[in-house]
Amino acid sequence: MVIELLTSHSSVRKYKDIPLSREEVQNLVRAGQHAASSHFVQAYSVIYVTDQGKREQLAELASNKRQFLTAGAVLIFCADYCRLASAAELHGEEIDYSYAENMLVGAIDVALFAQNVAIAAESKGYGICYIGGIRNAPTKISELLGLPDGVAPMFAMSIGVPDEANEVKPRLPVEAILHENSYDTEKYKQLLPDYDKTMHDYYLNRGSNQKDTAWSEQMTDFLAEPRRTHMKEFLAKQGFKFN
Amino acid sequence: MVIELLTSHSSVRKYKDIPLSREEVQNLVRAGQHAASSHFVQAYSVIYVTDQGKREQLAELASNKRQFLTAGAVLIFCADYCRLASAAELHGEEIDYSYAENMLVGAIDVALFAQNVAIAAESKGYGICYIGGIRNAPTKISELLGLPDGVAPMFAMSIGVPDEANEVKPRLPVEAILHENSYDTEKYKQLLPDYDKTMHDYYLNRGSNQKDTAWSEQMTDFLAEPRRTHMKEFLAKQGFKFN
Q: What's residue B43's pLDDT?
């Protein structure tokens, strides 16, 4: 049953006008907190955005009006070493989280946590969508939400009662993902053309936003230009210097 | 029911001598693939380590004999832009994934995927444990598993039939994690001493490995020294230069 829930996931971007209660959001976040955390650092925070003005500014900054304005709840997921710095202060110590390792731990910790929140929400009949678009304007969004040093927004999530049902997108064949004992480049090179055919059919025939493209083509276009080159400087400003 | 499954998670480090079948591992990985992926890049791979010699070497390199030698399955989760580079090659293009943004996307993508694998496994009655210890020796482990440029191991996971049941560790109070509209440092500063008391009781009284400590103390000790300072150089070698 749980596996059926996991494999039926598709992003929901259109919601009915039914807000989640604060208590529901708390319960989802509590479920999220039970994900594993590296050495139990719990290096994450969530900003639950209920203020209409802030939701409007987020919608502008992340170029995503539909979700930020209509979702039943808007959550901003952050990697967080500020709370760990406060914990160390209790013992008169300073911590140095400026290393690449710390950024990785924060990004992985918050993602494990968020995926639990997503699954908890979907198990209650809600739809969700991850929104990486907040990394288009991380400095302004951090100012808007008062994020201190040691905190960096990684992604947002919209949650709500679905007003659409998207088809489940075909994933890469498991053989292209799962290697046994050694990484095998040749195997997936052989599998990509067939997967492209599958995705071409999917993109042409899906319920909305049809397009004549395939996965490898989409990826090539998407990654043709460097992505979000401001991130290094933004993260350094927050204390994540990749030392 | 799903939320009960999520909130009952505790890491399992001791397994019965019952291997998972290859088919079971494939099914868990398929369930993992249904997690969301940033722009559908699917920027992850898993190395399923069945070779006894390689499991022994991993056990040494990650200083974790018990899990690498006794788990029913050992999976190494990697951020992967190599497959995306292959996809672009089909169109005669090269991609540049040397930016901090690309590393973040890879780390987040593989973590969302892994958390689905974890939940799928736990829903089948297996226990799991994330193992960050592979980042102690990423260069040697990458050689052992033949990881090409664009691929970096992020963490491992042991999966198996539990031979122990650990208590669920008390998480930070939700109020210390969840902020409304603005990040609130003061709120959690007030909550940390009580949480320390809770964790002190937990560490003193749990079933095994009792210790006289609290969360803030543990964190302060853990982060007193820079962590895994070799990661920057290793990641740069794999092509993740944090540009």
A: 98
Contacts of B222 in chain A (CB under 8 A): 39, 41
Residues A216, A101 share a domain: no
Rounding to the nearest 10 degrees, give the CA dihedral for residues B15, B5, B156, B87: 140
A144 in the same domain as A43:
yes
Note whether residue B85 is domain-resident. Answer: yes
Q: Give the residue from A38, A46, A169, A181 with the most B CB atoms within 10 Å of its CB, the best one to mutate.
A: A181
Residues of B in contact with A100 (CB under 8 A): 231-232, 235, 242
| B243: in domain | no
Bridge pairing between strands B178-180 and A44-48: parallel
CB contact under 8 A, B219 and A41: yes
**B47 bridge partner residues:** A179, B76
The predicted model gives B191-195 an average pLDDT of 98
ipTM value, please give it.
Answer: 0.98
Nearest-by-CA chain B residue for A177: B45
Q: Which residues of A touch B99 (CB under 8 A)?
A: 226-229, 231-232
The C-alpha atoms of residue A224 and residue B135 are separated, in whole angstroms, by 30
| A91-141 per-position pLDDT tens digit | 999 999 999 999 999 999 999 999 999 999 999 999 999 999 999 999 999
Contact A98, A84 (CB under 8 A): no
A76-87, pLDDT tens digit by residue?
999 999 999 999
